[in-house]
Amino acid sequence: MPAKTDHEARRRDVSAAVWRVLAQRGFDGLTLRAVAIELGATTGLVTHYFPSKQALVVHALELAEERTQALVPQPDSLRSALRAVLPLTPEATEINRVWVSSWDVALSDPELHALEKARYKRWRAKLLPLVSAAQNDGDLPPGDPEDLVAGLAAFTHGLVVQALFDPRAFPRKRLVELLDGHLQALRPA
């Protein structure tokens, strides 16, 4: 039985090394060798857990999704769900840097493209009841809630990208104000 515990601990160590490499170097720098160096181990040890770069990248995306879900497991409002996406903390900034760096990889690989498409679909599905509730409360205009979800997702990711490229122009306070202002502007008169 102790060997299984050691195996699980080692896998967690490898996963932590994957995340550190990813956070520092993005997907272009995520290689089996880079993870092995970060871990202080051999490439053979890493390939025991991830037999190919593709398996490593898929695992990295799973880690990013786990970390994203941990930020706000169950948002209580549309505002809190959208705020959770913004780079308002060092951890959220790191997660967003990983996601943005994954887009190029996901667009060029059919398997990763399908995974990312499904992830966005899940995110929109999570926002949909929050948008519908905001519409019922009169906080959002009537109309197709899926269109509102798509617009809000695009607006929020636009803020993310701007903040990652120019954090001085888009500090935490401004990001929150821009989001709140956008939600307020959507509110029916």
Category by helix and strand content? mainly alpha
Largest sheet: none
Mean pLDDT: 90
CATH class of the largest domain: Mainly Alpha
- Number of DSSP strand runs: 0
The CATH topology assignment of the largest domain is: Tetracycline Repressor, domain 2
CATH superfamily of the largest domain: Tetracycline Repressor, domain 2
Named at the architecture level, the CATH assignment of the largest domain is Orthogonal Bundle
Number of helices: 9
Tell me the strand percentage band: under 5%
Distance between the termini: 65 Å
Domains (count):
2
Instruction: Sketch the topology as an H/E string, one letter per element.
Output: HHHHHHHHH
Supply Rg. Answer: 19 Å
Which residues form runs of ≥5 with pLDDT under 50? none
Percentage of helical residues? over 70%
The shape, in one word, is elongated
Q: Mind explaining what this structure looks like?
A:
The protein has nine helices and no strands. Helix 1 crosses helix 4 (53-71) and helix 2 (32-39) crosses helix 3. The chain is elongated, with a radius of gyration of 19 Å. The chain has helices spanning 2-25, 32-39, 43-49, 53-71, 78-85, 90-108, 110-136, 145-165, 172-186. With 189 residues, it is an all-alpha fold.
